[in-house]
């Protein structure tokens, strides 16, 4: 606790994910008062053709 | 609002996703009374070996 | 297949969910060429204090 | 983009969610280089009887 | 690893969830060769008016 | 009902998924008293660089 899922466009390098995992974990622990070991984060890479806003695929924008 | 996630078997061409995104967004707006910009849709492609019904993988059916 | 999850603000009456379930199922079948029995939809009611955009809870907007 | 879901034990006051939404959004924007408007966060309150680790419900620990 | 989410109709007593958490954890460990501590399970209670199959809410069946 | 999602590290062979699908379905039916046909399971393969615990990616451990 907590368990965090982050959906983001694919193509992000591992350096970005590493930094984001550190930052989100740090903030979650600070605000919720939990230990880092309690924080699980899963990133879900989403292709632009798999994400639509306002009915339009991001690969079409 | 709303946020819609659609799990479907992989292998669908982008034309199908484009049409489905349009159709689901249109219906969500009509029924919920929201603007298209409020509707986010994410498609999750699922391999047949990753989906089981009645305990049997779809890749085995 | 497919399995659809819809996150929407809570407070929607069942009549709206009934109509939305019918509409989304109909469109999914039309576009994907599947039978209605293959379509599962789950609605997730989200309280305004549990949804944030741009870092602001919707209960604060 | 990105869309963040946070599962946490229920009972957290809205002040905590407000602060967490701000903090996670700020860090996501900093690391990913996106605007705050692009960040959606949904909190899912989970009862202790609905979360198990090592096969034991947290309500039993 | 692994992280398991179980959507089920609401109304199940805690005794059922306790037994199901134990059983799923045991089987996951046996098949995947992991320790029980590695297994997280979250149950999501779904109201019958929030689940539709074939376009019909389960509260209407 | 129920619908089960299992997030696990990628790289697992289909034989493991087949066995796990059978085992989880059997236990769900036994405990919940449902038929196998009512059980849907989706596996989500997660790369080690997409999963973090305590702020550290599993690909870095």
The helix/strand class of chain A is alpha+beta
What is the number of beta strands of chain A? Answer: 4
Gap from first CA to last CA of chain A? 37 Å
Report the biggest beta sheet of chain A as strand number plus sense, adding barrel if it closes: 2 strands, parallel
Rounded Rg of chain A: 14 Å
The CATH topology of chain A is: Macrophage Migration Inhibitory Factor
Instruction: Domain count of chain A, please report it.
Output: 1
Shape of chain A: elongated
Order of helices and strands of chain A: EHEEE
Question: Percentage of helical residues of chain A?
Answer: 25-40%
Briefly, what is this?
6 copies of one chain form a homohexamer. By secondary structure, chain A is α+β, with helices and mostly antiparallel strands.
């Amino acid at each position: 606790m907590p368990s965090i899922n982050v959906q983001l466009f694919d193509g992000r390098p591992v350096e970005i994910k590493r930094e984001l995992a550190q930052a989100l974990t740090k903030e979650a622990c600070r605000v919720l008062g939990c230990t880092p070991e309690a924080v699980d984060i899963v990133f879900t890479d989403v292709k632009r053709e798999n994400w639509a806003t306002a009915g339009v695929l991001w690969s079409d924008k």
